[in-house]
Amino acid sequence: MANLADSFLADLDELSDNEGYPEEDNAEEAGREEDDDDMPDLESLNYDELDSVSKLQKTQRYNDIMQKVEDALQKGTDFSNQGFILEEDPEYQLIVDCNALSVDIENEIIIIHNFIRDNYLVQRGKILLDFLPATSQFRVGYLEQTEVFQSTPPALRTRACRLIAAKSTLAARIDSIRGDPTGKAGRNLLEEIRKKIEKWQEPPPAKLPKPLPVPDSEPKKKRGGRRLRKMKERYAQTDMMKLANRMQFGIPEESSLGDGLGEGYGMLGQAGSGKLRVSAGQNKLAAKVAKKFKEKSYGSSGATSGLTSSLAFTPVQGIELSNPQAQGNLLGGGTQSTYFSETGTFSKIRRTQ
């Protein structure tokens, strides 16, 4: 029985010990709730001022931990307290508090980032929107305040500003020399400006309907002239070039160097082209050049060519040194060989009866 009673007492002691732990747990949870109360809620923040968001540096807990850290850095590490329990060491407790504080600092950084994003990003977009060309206003100084400029549509205000500036310069020059005391010239310039602005606002003339061409009519002669026709004939593509620029499907073309190297010949000389020989077209330009070359006379200047030799082979003496111009000098040269020749005689004399 004594053993049974001792066991009951031991169970009661264990129950009493377990009842103490929930109190400590509740105390820790209460401390955590107090710490959570120090940190602002992300959803219930007032984004009007930064001080309402950033509160960690102003809390007493932050100041106490930072003061303990500074004292520990100045004091240094004490190695004489190595026999104490780790949980009871003040440096250990300070490290735990610093870790918890670092988590709170990271949370506050996120809160400040959201504050900047929600407040300044929208303002930045509005500021950049003012710099866009579509929304930027055209500033021209005093000319913008005139009645003519204000009555002009926004799309034409740039042109109107240039026109008003030019006419204002002319009016200022007239006033500088006092050329028009009555102001008639200025009124004429103003009326001219208004008429031009009204002219700009008129719709463009409507396009007239283009009539259809008469069916089965003769084709119109396109303008070109003789010079253009000559140029087209000169640079026209021949049949040979057309075949060289054309290739058959699935058949490799021949090339100048073979194996696809060099200049390709296309369909020239291929069996599948259907033509034995490329017909040469009539080239008017080549015919004209040949005719002009034929009609042109090339007279000799008396100089012999480089292939002419002064040695002649004769059956009497063999190799004989001859003069190529000796035959021409027999009857005289130039006009003497015909009418005024000294050696020539009349071949026929008509006698008068």
From TrEMBL:
GO biological process, one term: spliceosomal tri-snRNP complex assembly
Superkingdom of source: Eukaryota
UniProt feature, compositional bias: Pro residues: 202-216
InterPro entries on file: Nop_C, Nop_dom, Nop_dom_sf, Prp31, Prp31_C
Compartments reported by the entry: Nucleus
Start-end of Basic residues biased regions: 220-230
Domain named Nop: residues: 88-202
Bias (Polar residues): 336-346
Residue spans of biased composition, Acidic residues class: 11-46
SUPFAM superfamilies membership: Nop domain
Keywords: Nucleus, Ribonucleoprotein
Protein name: Nop domain-containing protein
Species annotation: Miscanthus lutarioriparius
